[in-house]
Amino acid sequence: MRIATFNINGIKARLPRLKEWLEETRPAVACLQEIKSPDENFPASEFEDIGYHAIWHGQKSFNGVAILADGEKPVESKRGLGIDGPKDDEGEQARYLEADVNGVRICNLYLPNGNPQPGPKFDYKLEWMKLLRERMQHLLTREEPTVVLGDFNVIPEDKDVWSVRAMANDALMQPESRDAYFRLLHDGWTDAIDTLNPRGGVWTYWDYQAGAWQRDHGFRIDHILLSPHAADRMTATGVDKAYRGREKSSDHTPVWVELKD
C-alpha cells in the first residue's frame, strides 16, 4: 500500500502534472496540499476519470488539502484543528483533513510557514503545532495504523538542508520549530524518510528562484510520520525527485511510503 504526499502548489495550474504522476506511480492514497481552490471548484471528476475518489477541504487562493484514494472513497473523520488564523477575522484556514482508507487512518496537513519571524505568523505556527501534537497524541491512543503526512514547513536537522547558513533566519529552521517537531517524534512517531535515509541529503522542495533546482539547492520539509502500528508495516519510502524537473512542475516533489498489507 503506497501512501504519498504532494504539495501541488495550485491544483488548477498543476493538474496535468498531477494526473501524470498519479497514473505513472499509482499510489493507493495521495495527500495533496496547497490546492488553492474553493470547494466548489475542486476538479473531482478529473480524478474519478482515472479511478481516484477524493475528499477535500478548500480555500480560495490559499492553502487547501485533499485526500485521494485509488478505487475507494476516503471516509472523513476530521477536518481542521479548531484554530483561527493569525488575524482574528480570518477564521480557520484549510490546513488539516483526516480520513480512513483501507484500514489506515490518514492525516493530511499543510502546516503554517511562520515567516516572517518573530511575529504573529510564527506564533500561529507554534500554536498550530501544539494543537497538532494534541491530536496526534489522541490518535496514538487508538493503537491503529496511522499516517500523518504533508508539508510540515519544518527542516528538522542541519542534514536536511543544502545550506544551513542560507536558511538560518527562516521560520522553517528556528529552534522552536524544530523542538515542536521533535516533540511529535518523541511521543512515539517514526519519521519514515529519515529512518531509511539517516545520513540526510534528501530534499523535497526546491525554490523557483536563483536556479535552486538546477543547482540542487533544496531542503526537506515534506514528511511522513508513522504510528507504531504503521511503522511495523513499513517496507520502503522514497522521493519522486524527477517530477520536480518537469515542465510547469510544483516547487515540491512527491514523497511516499509503502506499508505491507
From TrEMBL:
Interaction with DNA substrate, annotated site positions: 252
Residues engaged in binding Mg(2+): 7, 34, 151, 153, 251-252
Cofactor note: Probably binds two magnesium or manganese ions per subunit.
Site (Important for catalytic activity): 222
GO biological process, one term: DNA repair
Site (Transition state stabilizer): residue numbering on this chain: 153
Superkingdom, natural source: Bacteria
Pfam families per UniProt: Exo_endo_phos
Family of this protein: Belongs to the DNA repair enzymes AP/ExoA family.
Protein's UniProt name: Exodeoxyribonuclease III
Species annotation: Aurantiacibacter gangjinensis
